[in-house]
Amino acid sequence: MPREPKSFEDAITATDFSSEDYCGTSYAAKLLGLSVATVQSLVEKGEIDAWKTLGGHRRIALQSINAYLAKNNPQVAKVVDTDPKHRLRVLLVEDDEATRELYQLQFEDWDLPVDCTWMPSALEALMDIASMRPDLLITDLSMPGVDGIEMLKALKRNQQLADMQIIVISGLPPEAIEERGGLPPDAHRLQKPVNFDWLHGYVTALVTANRKWHH
After folding, report:
1. Is the separation of the CB atoms in 157 and 129 below 8 Å?
2. What angle do CA 103, 112, 190 make, to 5 degrees?
3. CA torsion through residues 44, 46, 49, 54, sign
4. Is the predicted pLDDT of residue 4 greater than 80, yes or no?
5. 131 and 23 in contact (C-beta within 8 Å)?
6. Distances (CA, A) of 29 to 25, 32, 34, 86
7. pTM of the full predicted structure?
8. Taking CA 199 as the corner, what is the angle to CA 195 and CA 201, rounded to the nearest 5 degrees?
């Protein structure tokens, strides 16, 4: 296993940053099929390896998750390694809880084969994105801590995320975004409030393309 960087904050600014060996508590809970509280208690008991970032976020070693599953739940262990490829993986990064709930309601209404993970900050998204490999990232730009523009710059350095589609949803005027370094050329920019009809069409098209790709 690679040596842990001194802190995750140092790691994500390094040019060779890769968080594939680690994930956050919420993603670990999803992989294990357990609640976040249960995962935290397994960490405290030392049954799963984890360490904390400066911001107090837990990072959990994926290897220890797989080892735990292999020991306690061998049926699930196989499932974790074989990702359900026919479902579209979406990561939504939005610090406003009311807006996250609005997205959740919309996604549930659409009833599409989509696995959506919700993150309240760009820092958490950066920590988990390499192990999640989402097909689509939907992100706000103005967030406390690491903002969306910084996050997108860091992601563009990761070749394994080159195929990920990006939708940026922001109330910022285009000039303000350009002043701060701009967006990746292939990112779609939507103004707030979100046009959910457009988003539904876009996600539906991705689901269709995804099916063709994997068949």
Report:
1. no
2. 40
3. positive
4. no
5. yes
6. 6, 5, 5, 22
7. 0.65
8. 120
More reliable by pLDDT, 167 or 207 = 167
Amino acid letter for position 47: E
* Residue in the block written with tokens 């709930």: 101
User: Which CA distances in Å does 57 have to 23, 50, 82, 118?
Assistant: 10, 10, 27, 15
φ/ψ of residue 9, rounded to 5: -60, -40
Sorted by sequence, the CB contacts under 8 Å of residue 99 that are 6+ apart come out as 140
Residues 126, 157: Cα–Cα separation, whole Å: 12
Q: Is the pLDDT of residue 163 over 70?
A: yes
Q: Which two tokens stand for residue 33?
A: 């099929």
Neighbour-count burial for 45-69, b at 16+ CB within 10 Å, e otherwise: eeebbbeebeeeebbbbbebbeebb
Q: In a 10 Å sphere around its CB, with 0-12 CB exposed, 13-18 middle and 19+ buried, how is residue 90 labelled?
A: buried
Q: Is the pLDDT of residue 84 over 60?
A: no
Domains parsed from the chain with CATH numbers = 8-81 (1.10.10), 88-214 (3.40.50.2300)
Give the span between the Cα atoms of 100 and 125, in whole angstroms: 14
What's the token pair of residue 169?
């949803």
